[in-house]
Amino acid sequence: MSFEMLPLPYAFDALEPYIDAQTVDLHYSKHHATYLKNLNDALAKHTELQNLSIEQILSDLNRVPEDIRTTVRNNGGGYYNHNIYWAIMGPNQGGEPAGRLGEAIRSTFGSFSSFQEQLEKAGLGRFGSGWAWLSKRPDGSLVIHSTPNQDTPLAEGMTPIIGVDVWEHAYYLKYQNRRAEYLKNWWNLVNWEEAERRFQQTS
Prior knowledge:
Elements: H1 21-43, H2 54-59, H3 66-87, H4 99-109, H5 112-125, E1 130-136, E2 142-148, E3 159-165, H6 172-175, H7 179-186, H8 192-201
Antiparallel strand pairs: 1-2, 1-3
């Protein structure tokens, strides 16, 4: 069984003006698709892994044979992380989260604005390429953290709720080196209904 590209839930230009259509097209059609191809190529060598979910594979990389482990870590992570990234954004989104996730964010971080500030700091503090996350620990508590490259919160025993890509390919065509501006504008795209669904799904 091969993994497949999930359909992009909106048009390439739907995230304008915050993320431009060309970036979305290149990011989804080239970068994301390449991670998927490389993942499937690696797994084709080991049929014993092909009935596992991507979450099962990335949660326990030690079960992945050593000859493909790095490839699966990098490309499986890239495939999985981007599935979340596209799902967690959308046109006409933004604002503040309501529901149980909104309550948990405010109780954990003091306020929504404090939460935003800390997540942006995690994204800005990631040297080179990586991600900033809001994840849920096994005990149900929330944490803001960052992972390098295409590493996932799953490998740390956590479940990602929202994730923002801070690889340069996510923003460079529009923002050049202005990662901070990209991160601030990204809040206008966050699909809090999807984030709430992910939060409750892991409860």
